[in-house]
């Protein structure tokens, strides 16, 4: 690609619309895709029987050197869809090229995602870890600490656009000669996270020819703009599917509940074991996450809090602990990442920390693979449809079942309507948020105890 060229989708571009088959499991198995045996073995260790549909289509195209724009819903395995062909390509390169160099750049919008991509690539390279080195530079705050890591020229570098550009400008990272592939993960977020300027500057530092992957759960204006900037005659893989799994995999409910009763309602659901298993409870503000944690603690319900004010190491640690089942409940606040009412942040470069000490490169509802989440609760309804989709997408991932339950106050009814209309529009099967009904009549006792606790909490 030539820097600054706006490359339109050429006539040779292929748009492949794939049918929706549950999460989209493929016909082929991994060993039938012509992969290096070390990769096949690593995939087997992960317990993956077959590629998902997006993987089955993307892996051969990626191995063929095609530019790819892939849209598939949350949890459909997009990370491995680009990571596998990239690792395969690197293993092949290693047979002929002896010089160590950074050959792949994976751009992510958040530090959590950078950490997760690193983990996934490490798992996939278990049997070739000596041949393929990877570094995640999104997470570390101190740039000088990353210099020695980059001096070793890892084959794959993962980072946010701003951090990568910083290293390029400081000449601790040079991609102009060696880069063979660029990935933009969660492409729909890169611009809305304010990385547009950084990304454009960064693209000017890349060689003329390299393979590009754009991965996204949604196709929006940002993805279109990125496509023009980054891709050259791409193959477009677009799963013809609803944005969330259908009701056979993901149950979606809402409960009408005024603000003052939300705490009570959550306690009731948990105590009556109407919600079981690992649960992510989303709130719209950091302060509410602590308030809710405190409230649950009064009833000896342990939970942990995840928000942008925590240092990145703590956030990654909390996600890891949750995935290891140390906690059943995470209370996460995510809304600040979308800005006001879910509008995108334009142009301006984001600083590391906001005035309130919140990390701008934070995001838990986007792309993070929380394991085996049985329920997502929208304690506060999100402020945009996209945000609802990404929150709900933290459950029912891959082939697992899940439920999304939204507490809806009167003031949130217009948003509920917007979500239902948007999910219905795409022809989604069963994606309406059904009213939730309590299967018990004995709520009064809980109601009383909760009210007492709420009064106590307000008094604190
Ligand atoms: N072929 C497969 N078989 C079974 N599970 C898989 C397969 N591929 C990936 N997974 C699992 O599916 C989950 C979701 O994968 P991944 O995070 O890559 O999805 P995604 O499409 O990137 O989601 P998001 O859009 O939310 O980022 C992960 O736990 C991953 O380990």
From TrEMBL:
<dbReference type="InterPro" id="IPR001650">
    <property type="entry name" value="Helicase_C-like"/>
</dbReference>
<dbReference type="InterPro" id="IPR014001">
    <property type="entry name" value="Helicase_ATP-bd"/>
</dbReference>
<feature type="domain" description="Helicase ATP-binding">
    <location>
        <begin position="59"/>
        <end position="237"/>
    </location>
</feature>
<dbReference type="GO" id="GO:0005524">
    <property type="term" value="F:ATP binding"/>
</dbReference>
<feature type="domain" description="Helicase C-terminal">
    <location>
        <begin position="249"/>
        <end position="444"/>
    </location>
</feature>
<dbReference type="GO" id="GO:0016787">
    <property type="term" value="F:hydrolase activity"/>
</dbReference>
<comment type="subunit">
    <text>May form homooligomeric complexes. Interacts with IRF3. Interacts with OCT4 and POU5F1.</text>
</comment>
<keyword id="KW-0694">RNA-binding</keyword>
<protein>
    <recommendedName>
        <fullName>Probable ATP-dependent RNA helicase DDX56</fullName>
        <ecNumber>3.6.4.13</ecNumber>
    </recommendedName>
</protein>
<keyword id="KW-0347">Helicase</keyword>
<dbReference type="GO" id="GO:0005829">
    <property type="term" value="C:cytosol"/>
</dbReference>
<dbReference type="GO" id="GO:0003724">
    <property type="term" value="F:RNA helicase activity"/>
</dbReference>
<dbReference type="Pfam" id="PF00271">
    <property type="entry name" value="Helicase_C"/>
</dbReference>
<comment type="similarity">
    <text>Belongs to the DEAD box helicase family. DDX56/DBP9 subfamily.</text>
</comment>
<keyword id="KW-0378">Hydrolase</keyword>
<keyword id="KW-0698">rRNA processing</keyword>
<dbReference type="InterPro" id="IPR027417">
    <property type="entry name" value="P-loop_NTPase"/>
</dbReference>
<keyword id="KW-0067">ATP-binding</keyword>
<dbReference type="InterPro" id="IPR011545">
    <property type="entry name" value="DEAD/DEAH_box_helicase_dom"/>
</dbReference>
<dbReference type="Pfam" id="PF00270">
    <property type="entry name" value="DEAD"/>
</dbReference>
<dbReference type="InterPro" id="IPR050079">
    <property type="entry name" value="DEAD_box_RNA_helicase"/>
</dbReference>
<feature type="compositionally biased region" description="Basic residues">
    <location>
        <begin position="342"/>
        <end position="353"/>
    </location>
</feature>
<keyword id="KW-0547">Nucleotide-binding</keyword>
<dbReference type="GO" id="GO:0006364">
    <property type="term" value="P:rRNA processing"/>
</dbReference>
<comment type="function">
    <text>Nucleolar RNA helicase that plays a role in various biological processes including innate immunity, ribosome biogenesis or nucleolus organization. Plays an essential role in maintaining nucleolar integrity in planarian stem cells. Maintains embryonic stem cells proliferation by conventional regulation of ribosome assembly and interaction with OCT4 and POU5F1 complex. Regulates antiviral innate immunity by inhibiting the virus-triggered signaling nuclear translocation of IRF3. Mechanistically, acts by disrupting the interaction between IRF3 and importin IPO5.</text>
</comment>
<dbReference type="GO" id="GO:0003723">
    <property type="term" value="F:RNA binding"/>
</dbReference>
<dbReference type="GO" id="GO:0005730">
    <property type="term" value="C:nucleolus"/>
</dbReference>
<dbReference type="InterPro" id="IPR014014">
    <property type="entry name" value="RNA_helicase_DEAD_Q_motif"/>
</dbReference>
<feature type="short sequence motif" description="Q motif">
    <location>
        <begin position="28"/>
        <end position="56"/>
    </location>
</feature>
<feature type="region of interest" description="Disordered">
    <location>
        <begin position="341"/>
        <end position="361"/>
    </location>
</feature>
<keyword id="KW-0690">Ribosome biogenesis</keyword>
<feature type="domain" description="DEAD-box RNA helicase Q">
    <location>
        <begin position="28"/>
        <end position="56"/>
    </location>
</feature>
<keyword id="KW-0539">Nucleus</keyword>
